[in-house]
Amino acid sequence: MHTIRLDPLGEEHLDGLAALVDDPDVQRFTRVPVPPPPDMPRRWLARYEQGRLDGSCEGFAVVDRGTGAFLGLALAPAIDQEGRTAELGYVVAPGARGRGVASAALSQLTDWALSELGALRLELIIDVDNAASKRVAGRCGYEREGMLRSVHVKQGLRADVEMWARLAERRIGYTQAE
Ligand SMILES: CC(C)(COP(=O)(O)OP(=O)(O)OC[C@H]1O[C@@H](n2cnc3c(N)ncnc32)[C@H](O)[C@@H]1OP(=O)(O)O)[C@@H](O)C(=O)NCCC(=O)NCCS
């Protein structure tokens, strides 16, 4: 697998973010608005900086361990602290695709969410046509739970999406207090 590390998203990643928002696959398969507003990279960063403070989300840059180059994003766009559940996501810069970066990033992000967040359930919401992303999910131990039809993804886009999830334990039962 590719040698990467996850760094907390910061000002130094604004150029990297700017290079992602115009990519056709990012526009097709993520919640980035189309067309992206000119200040989209800064909005993206502000959202994750705020989320880090209030615990509602967390964002990391995926960085090449050797060169320090920005390769993409590993995100927890929605964290439910009480429910110990998080939605995760990932984006790889077009020039870095096809060599295991997303799989390495999701693997590290999953470890972080299970250990640091103490999450019991991790979710990925993947467009039915996003074959590469489904491959990444399966490789990292996520299982497809089902398909949700005509989900509102963003303005102007409803899509059929799949719910993929990974649990901290194989099965968590509900224990009723006696
Ligand atoms: C999806 C995405 C993150 C994958 O990044 P990546 O670094 O290329 O992923 P990896 O190299 O780790 O793995 C991709 C896997 O999908 C496979 N793949 C790539 N394109 C494919 C396609 N069109 N159909 C089927 N499989 C495909 C690759 O062969 C690889 O599988 P393998 O390692 O078993 O051969 C990247 O394409 C991306 O950023 N897309 C736009 C944003 C996005 O869709 N994010 C996910 C939202 S849920």
What topology emerges from the helices and strands here?
Layout: E1 4-8, H1 14-21, H2 24-29, H3 40-54, E2 58-64, E3 70-80, E4 85-92, H4 101-115, E5 121-127, H5 131-139, E6 143-154, E7 157-167
Parallel strand pairs: 4-5
Antiparallel strand pairs: 1-2, 2-3, 3-4, 5-7, 6-7
Helix pairs in contact: 1-3
The protein binds coenzyme A.
Report on this model:
Helix 1 (14-21) crosses helix 3. A seven-stranded mixed sheet has the order 1-2-3-4-5-7-6, sandwiched between helices. It has one domain (4-167): Gcn5-related N-acetyltransferase (GNAT) (Aminopeptidase, 3-Layer(aba) Sandwich), CATH 3.40.630.30. The chain starts with a strand and ends in an 11-residue tail after the last strand. A hairpin with a 5-residue loop joins strand 2 (58-64) and strand 3. It has 178 residues and is an alpha+beta fold. It contains five helices and seven strands. The protein has helices at residues 14-21, 24-29, 40-54, 101-115, 131-139; strands at residues 4-8, 58-64, 70-80, 85-92, 121-127, 143-154, 157-167. The site of coenzyme A has 22 residues, from helix 2, strand 4, helix 4 and helix 5.
What key phrases describe this protein's structure?
178 residues, alpha+beta, Aminopeptidase, 7-stranded mixed beta sheet, 5 helices, 7 strands, 34% strand, binds coenzyme A
Brief characterization of the structure:
α1 (14-21) crosses α3 (40-54).
